[in-house]
Amino acid sequence: MLPRIAIIGNGQLGRMLKQAGAPMGIEVLPCDPSLDEPVELKPDDVITVEQELWPDTPRSRQLTAHPGFLNARATQLIRDRLSEKSLLDHLKVGTAPWCNVTPDHTTEHLALVGDKLVIKRRQGGYDGRGQWRWKQGEPALDEWLGECIAEKMIPFDEEVSLVGARGHDGKCVFYPLTLNLHQQGILHASVGGLKRLQPLQAQAEEWLTRIMVELDYVGVMAMECFVVDGTLLVNELAPRVHNSGHWTQAGANPSQFQLHLRAVTDLPLFTPAVDGLSVMWNLLGRDWSTDWLAVPGCDVHWYEKDIRPGRKVGHVNLHRGAVADLQASITQLAALLPEDDRSPLHWALHEIQADSSA
Ligand code: ADP
Ligand code: MG
What we know:
The protein has helices at about 10-20, 60-65, 70-80, 80-90, 105-115, 200-215, 250, 255-265, 325-335, 345-355; strands spanning about 5-10, 30, 45-50, 100, 115-120, 130-135, 150, 160-165, 170-175, 180-185, 185-190, 220-230, 230-240, 250-255, 275, 280-285, 300, 310-320. Helix content is about 30%, strand content about 30%. The protein is built from ten helices and 18 strands. β12 and β13 (about 230-240) form a beta hairpin. The longest helix has 17 residues, at about 200-215. The structure holds adenosine-5'-diphosphate and magnesium ion. It catalyses: 5-amino-1-(5-phospho-beta-D-ribosyl)imidazole + hydrogencarbonate + ATP = 5-carboxyamino-1-(5-phospho-D-ribosyl)imidazole + ADP + phosphate + 2 H(+).
């Protein structure tokens, strides 16, 4: 009998973990940690997370006190950018120059890091929230002091991420690097399987292995990176399945969700088989249309959340075995969208075209 998996968090990631467990009869129980009522847990349940930070409630205390709770140290270190960046430095993993913004910080201290900085709240930021831009000559805001880190603004060429997993036996496996399009700090689209990113793969895998080994981590972890002049700098880590790995639902076997379930329940792990190129387009604060289902290779994942401006309410995966077919599908889907919404798909189309003609 496989153990049941309780998830701290009941958003779309927990929902998709549950969907991934269903075919194998693995029971996945997403739990809202903000509620007080305890969950009925069994002694051999495995507890894992879909978010890094949660409120202190009787339920969250119950879940984290359970002996099956995995990755307590990793989650604790990664949820605070101060300890996260310190970990990267300690492991000699490349990252943007930074400093802790202490309670007595002045603009002179900030200027030591760089002329242009990104100030990031240590805890709780996501989708670019809890961040400020700072330039030499501008004042430091009081609300940053003791609450933020300051990071050098990196004039990166592009953003990529590595999604991998480590098993109980220490085995690490990875997907190919994903190319990500962020706008205003939020992920709009990803392309998985690009050949031109292969030269960066070994460095990325080496770093993420080092991090997962140091944390004695089990499960899927994601590492977001900047690419600058053909080299990587790690931006941040996520001790969980990640939005930039959603394309694996369509273009890889197993998907990142099944890979995580395999890792945490000690089932066989191997390097996922990846079938060519895939595109993921995030539905941000917008509805979808059943017309899109006429596009071959187009899968809609709807999270059944209320639509609010900018909110991630679903994603669309596009995958077809042949590059020309994938290009045709992207073009077909883009034509069904209002002009203002097409740019992430056009970006993906351009990337695929460049990769296949290289
Ligand atoms: P979040 O937790 O909100 O994803 P990130 O640290 O990943 O926070 O920042 C969101 C986005 O903001 C990044 O994907 C990147 O586009 C931009 N960004 C973050 N840090 C820097 C930096 N040091 N230099 C340039 N851009 C940055
Ligand atoms: Mg990020």
